[in-house]
Amino acid sequence: MENLLEVKDLKTYFYTEDGVVPAVDGVDFELKPGQTLGIVGESGCGKSVTSLSILRLVPNPPGRIVEGEILFEGKDLVQATESEMQHIRGNDIAMIFQEPMTSLNPVFTIGKQIMEAIMLHQNLDKNAAREKCIEMLKLVGIPRAEQAIDEYPHQFSGGMRQRAMIAMALSCNPKLLIADEPTTALDVTIQAQIIELMKDLKDKLNTAIILITHDLGVVAEMCEHVIVMYAGKVVEEADILELYTDPKHPYTVGLMKSKPSLDDNRDRLEVIPGAVPNPLDMPEGCTFHPRCPHAMDICREKQPHLINNEEGRKVRCWLYEKEGEVK
Amino acid sequence: MAEQLRVDDRVELDDKDLVVVKNLKKYFPITGGFLKRVVGQVHAVEDISFTIRRGETLGIVGESGCGKSTTGRTILRLLEKTDGEVYYDGKEVFGLSKSEMVNLRTKMQIVFQDPYSSLNPRKTVAQICGEALVEHGLAKKGKEVNDIVSETIEKCGLAPYHIRRYPHEFSGGQRQRIGIARALTLNPEFIVCDEPVSALDVSIQSQIINLLMDLQQDMGLTYLFISHDLSVVKHISDRIGVMYLGNMVELAGKHDLYESPLHPYTQALLSAIPVPDPKKKRERIVLKGDIPSPANPPKGCTFHTRCPYAMDVCKEVTPEFIESAPDHFVACHLVNKR
């Protein structure tokens, strides 16, 4: 199958007073139509900047895409003009954000905000747009959709707001939906509702999804393919089953072990020592080596490459470099 | 009669109990209009009773707005109660005079959720952690305070030279260590941990959880651990209470609670957690709707509006919080009928 999205060697840097911050430093991945890709990592690893770069929403200055290609259906979005981007945003690629309160405008009704996108992108008149909007609100499970359309965001609860955001994002039938931590601000029972809703909609509409999250549990439930990011780089990429049964990169392993689970009864949690490095002062060699239990001399000197092994798994670590070189 | 088994009747004589909470209520007034008249009450905590034993960790879980933080703060008398009693080491906390309260404050401390807003940005670590020592007259300003603070922050995994630095020079995890050190300088017995790891990344979370558990062992601390993350609470707690809309709906030992949850809300809450294992498929109970407003809680059992098993009696009568299995308290008509 053709790839819907191909990101090649994407580099997005921020030029600050204190120096250059390589927020995204050479990220590659691809996505097929209808596929769900998870991007996992801790705060500051560049997962959100990656998604903003795809939509060209990185504020410039200070941010700039300095290198790389983002091929969406074969078209390079890095080179696209602003008016081309406006056509793509909302129409072909839509995005939902983490905090549904701050991403909805408090002075307009929910309906007005959803209809704006529909009228702009689908050339429908007001009445048709209103009908479409009610239909979308029903689709995402908002009760009393006919009345809710005229309500303001503050009248909605957190879960309802996120549903409204999803309705807005899906109203123009995008081919790709980018969901940036869509459930992080929500309570567990509401999170469960939203996850079920997104799974359901994915099956119905066949939208490709990029799910950005720090929660390995949410990824396990929703995604088929996962990328693990650390300090602006992809450190591991694998199918969901392989990643969870046999994580390769020491960071992935540490991340999985440090999360307390409901099923085990360990006394102590395993810990990744230290903290994420300061992006202005990245360690030399592998950026993970100061925290890595397997760090070798070479890790301190040279950056490892993202190695492809035979099962289509990718890992950026000197431990596996030899296997790659043999081939 | 079931009445006999209520928590509050059972515990008071027990020497093992450090904190006893009896029928605690905390309402916040809603004011409105030109004269700021009280037009309603937010029922943040509605008649809860439980005990915390010496040296244990009692976890409290619940979703936002369920009253778990208010409970923690009311026990410490950071908020005045509306009704009910809180006993600390046999003494009624709300009956103490101001000077007695000051003495008691050295024994109970709190660690807050957000390590960014809970530390004063204009003070150094030595000032932040040493303030209480000076205030209570336990050490003289200067070298004496600095020595105690350096020792404490070292226990919390920071270096002694850090005491001269300001909060902005630290990362989130380090700041939370400072927050913990601040609570520890007075050598307390009881610490309320109000979502201490929620604002932190996964890899940092585990460091802080391990630190809290080590400190508990070394210093014989008792924790009230408040969190919305059920897997974290399970890891650190001995017993766990589940709160919903100001009520405690279930309280049990952690293994009991996770292996055989009795209250429908606990069951739904547990099934809602995403499992980090793609091979595992679980039957998920998805609750309908949202939490009702605590300003206008439903009559009867507050959970009946979302409960998949709601019966007629649930809409009318508030279920009692009784011991339905040994050390397993539940407030549910469905369970307590049997």
From TrEMBL, chain A:
InterPro entries per UniProt: AAA+_ATPase (IPR003593), ABC_Ni/Peptide_Import (IPR050388), ABC_transporter-like_ATP-bd (IPR003439), ABC_transporter-like_CS (IPR017871), Oligopep_ABC_C (IPR013563), P-loop_NTPase (IPR027417)
Can you tell which superkingdom this protein's organism belongs to?
Bacteria
One Gene Ontology MF term: ATP hydrolysis activity
Its membrane topology, per UniProt? Answer: Peripheral membrane protein
Transport listed as a keyword: yes
GO CC annotation: what is one?
plasma membrane
| CDD domains registered for this protein in UniProt | ABC_NikE_OppD_transporters
Write the record's keywords in alphabetical order, separated by commas: ATP-binding, Cell membrane, Membrane, Nucleotide-binding, Transport
- Which intervals hold domain ABC transporter? 5-256
Where mainly found?
membrane
One biological-process term from Gene Ontology?
A: peptide transport
Where in or outside the cell it occurs: the entry states: Cell membrane
What PANTHER family would the database entry show? DIPEPTIDE TRANSPORT ATP-BINDING PROTEIN DPPD, OLIGOPEPTIDE TRANSPORT ATP-BINDING PROTEIN APPD
The UniProt entry, under NCBIfam families, shows: oligo_HPY
Family of this protein: Belongs to the ABC transporter superfamily.
The molecule here is called ABC transporter ATP-binding protein
Q: Which organism is it from?
A: Paratissierella segnis
TrEMBL record, chain B:
Could you mention a single GO BP entry for this protein? transmembrane transport
Give the CDD domains listed for this entry.
Answer: ABC_NikE_OppD_transporters (cd03257)
Which family does the record assign? Belongs to the ABC transporter superfamily.
Q: Where is the ABC transporter domain?
A: 19-270
Q: Which Gene3D superfamilies match?
A: P-loop containing nucleotide triphosphate hydrolases
**Per UniProt, what is one GO molecular function of this protein?**
ATP hydrolysis activity
User: Which PROSITE patterns does the record match to this protein?
Assistant: ABC_TRANSPORTER_1 (PS00211), ABC_TRANSPORTER_2 (PS50893)
Keywords in UniProt for this one?
Answer: ATP-binding, Nucleotide-binding, Transport
Q: What is this protein called?
A: Dipeptide ABC transporter ATP-binding protein
Instruction: Give the highest taxon in the source lineage.
Output: Bacteria
Q: What's the short name of a Pfam family annotated to this entry?
A: ABC_tran
| InterPro entries with a match to the protein in the record | AAA+_ATPase, ABC_transp_ATP-bind, ABC_transporter-like_ATP-bd, ABC_transporter-like_CS, Oligopep_ABC_C, P-loop_NTPase
Q: What species was this sequence derived from?
A: Paratissierella segnis
